[in-house]
Predict the structure.
Amino acid sequence: MLGIGIGFLVLLLGVGLGLGAVLTAFPVLHTGLKIAGGAYLLYLAWKIAMSRSLNSKGEAKARHG
């Protein structure tokens, strides 16, 4: 819950300080932010896909194939 609260606070500060106006004034910055966000989502998806699951005893199961 702490991460959600901190993220919401950062979002509110960004809106309050005019981040929307900055991104509107500099479309290249907006595009770069979208690309960076997409790359981060792909990175997270890769990490989840390559992670090992735990069995009921808490031991990591080997992935086959």
